[in-house]
Amino acid sequence: MKGLFLNNTPLSLYVHLPWCETQCPYCDFSITTDPVDGNDVRLADAIIKDIKHSSDLIADRKFKSIYFGGGTPSLASTQSIKQILNSIRDRLASSEIEITLEMNPNDVSEKKVEELLGAGINRVSLGIQSYINKELQALGRNHDRKSAIQATKILEDVNSTIDLIYGIEKQTPESLAENLEIIIASNVNHLSLYQLTIEPNTIFYKKELLLPDEGAIEKMEVIAKDLLEKNGFEQYEVSSWSKSGYKSQHNLNYWQFGDFLGVGPGSHSKISNKQEIIRYRKIKPLEGYIQNQKSADLKTIVDDELDMDLAMNLLRIKDGLQHQDLPIDLPASFLKKYQKGIDEGLLLKDKIGATQKGYQFLNETIQLFF
């Protein structure tokens, strides 16, 4: 890929480690259930090579955040994580940048967490999804309530975030409240609360599920808002709740339309210059990527597609954004559609963001930008 004439768009690094013990029936990510078997060190070498070969895209920018996602990155050895981080020390915006790694409860031990912190990880994203056994079984998770609570306890003094899903089969508003109360009682400072969505190419897509009805979902959302706000959590994005000072810097960079370099099999990238915005991904097969870190599906984002891309990211941020804080000059076509949203009472006049009504019906609001 040729080098781009880059602007000052902030840049984050996403590292995809694809191993999982099992395929969750709701997951459509690029994963493998093959054993790691030392391939984590081989993949780390390929990732280091990929970053080095991406120097034209990185240019003179430093990474403002790093995120190890997957898959289940905690299945990889600490040695391979450290190998990657050591290779990019001179590419970090500061020694204090947020470096997150996803873990599943079964992989959390005091020793493993200590090793990861020693390697340079300073934030852990814990994939709990639920603390209720029947809900975990409905989701096809490979951990139970006991291991979820134990993992949460081990991470009590670590900068951490928890993933929780609602709208699960067999879930009730009362059981969601129980889940949230466990998190509130811990020292966790960030929560990602997602409604279960059934994606094509997943096991769930082929099954007939008895999910909670719309009334139950609305009740769950009201309960969540009430409980979290009363206990010091602020919603700053559609699915994100944070205590003061603990917003996810990596995810904010996505939503604020910053750039991100994705490395690892199946990872996605967005890179800007003053003339264009490109998105592409890396090839998905693990062995293929290890042998050759090829890119695929390179696409220039322009016109209506750019308007939609902007809306789907910027409007997720609850408090909105000032024009001067954006890394891009908004296209005239976007601003014309945005004015229609202002006229309909869905979008803010003084900054880029949704009104209370627009945020409540965000999917419909975003349709303005098709």
Commentary on this structure:
The chain has 370 residues and is α/β, with parallel strands linked by helices. The protein folds into 2 domains: 11-253, TIM Barrel (Alpha-Beta Barrel), CATH 3.20.20; 304-370, no CATH class. It is built from 14 helices and 12 strands. The protein has helices spanning 39-53, 55-58, 78-87, 110-119, 133-139, 145-154, 173-185, 214-230, 249-255, 286-291, 303-314, 332-343, 356-360, 362-366, and strands spanning 11-17, 63-70, 98-103, 123-129, 160-166, 190-195, 234-237, 240-242, 259-263, 268-272, 277-282, 295-300. The strands form 2 sheets. A 9-stranded mixed β-sheet has the order 7-8-6-5-4-3-2-1-9, with helices on both faces. Helix 3 (78-87) packs parallel to helix 4.
Structural class estimated from helices and strands: alpha/beta
Shape: globular
- Please write the string of helix (H) and strand (E) elements: EHHEHEHEHHEHEHEEHEEEHEHHHH
Q: Going by CATH, what is the homologous superfamily of the largest domain?
A: Aldolase class I
What low-confidence regions span 5 or more consecutive residues with pLDDT below 50? 1-6
Number of helical regions = 14
Q: What is the CATH topology classification name of the largest domain?
A: TIM Barrel
The assigned CATH architecture of the largest domain is Alpha-Beta Barrel
Mean pLDDT: 94
Pfam family, one: Radical_SAM
Protein name: Heme chaperone HemW
Organism: SAR86 cluster bacterium SAR86E
InterPro entries: Coproporphyrinogen-III_oxidase (IPR034505), Elp3/MiaA/NifB-like_rSAM (IPR006638), HemW-like (IPR004559), rSAM (IPR007197), rSAM_horseshoe (IPR023404), rSAM_sf (IPR058240)
